[in-house]
Structure to design on (175 residues):
């Protein structure tokens, strides 16, 4: 579901999955919010990155996708059903925001992963990240539940709602 401001011509240059060598070309530009170590870890785990790139070779935005348990912090790992894909690290460069780049990326990736037999996407969005929450709701995502995380004196206290537990979503603390 794309919003009315979406300009299809903007994304006709390239929207697709990138190889490791391609994504590494973008890590030196701080505006891309990409860390070399993160990129290597994600690719070594088997994750993939779909990006929109303009005529000038500038990355407009990207989304990462994983079929495996994934770190959401340095010491928390999100686990989810194997028939879903975890969609994470949604990013759009500031000068391209408001143009539905992430929505287009998600729609294209959903088509790709659906053809591979996956049922859909799982997203984990921090409740204080209002811009991301607004974006995913506009794209058509719905809450399936809540996860509450608190850390006191180095110990985690995690509550996973009944709906998330029924959906087999849980967190592991990395030791």
């Amino acid at each position: 579901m794309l919003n009315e401001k979406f300009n299809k011509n903007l994304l006709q240059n390239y929207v697709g999955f990138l190889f490791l060598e391609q994504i590494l070309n973008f890590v030196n530009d701080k505006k891309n919010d990409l860390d070399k170590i993160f990129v290597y870890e994600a690719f070594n785990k088997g994750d993939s990155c779909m990006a929109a790139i303009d005529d000038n070779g500038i990355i407009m935005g990207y989304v990462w996708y994983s079929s495996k348990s994934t770190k959401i912090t340095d010491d928390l790992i999100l686990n989810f059903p194997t028939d879903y894909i975890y969609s994470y690290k949604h990013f759009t460069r500031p000068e391209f925001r408001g143009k539905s780049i992430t929505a287009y990326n998600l729609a294209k990736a959903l088509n790709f992963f659906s053809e591979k037999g996956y049922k859909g996407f799982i997203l984990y969005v921090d409740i204080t990240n209002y811009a991301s929450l607004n974006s995913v709701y506009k794209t058509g995502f719905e809450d399936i539940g809540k996860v509450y995380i608190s850390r006191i004196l180095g110990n985690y206290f995690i509550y996973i709602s009944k709906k998330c537990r029924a959906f087999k979503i849980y967190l592991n603390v990395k030791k």
Notes: Confidence is low (pLDDT under 50) at residues 1-6. Strands lie at 14-18, 48-53, 59-66, 70-71, 76-79, 85-92, 121-122, 147-152, 155-160, 170-173. The chain has one domain: 8-141. DSSP finds five helices and ten strands in the chain.
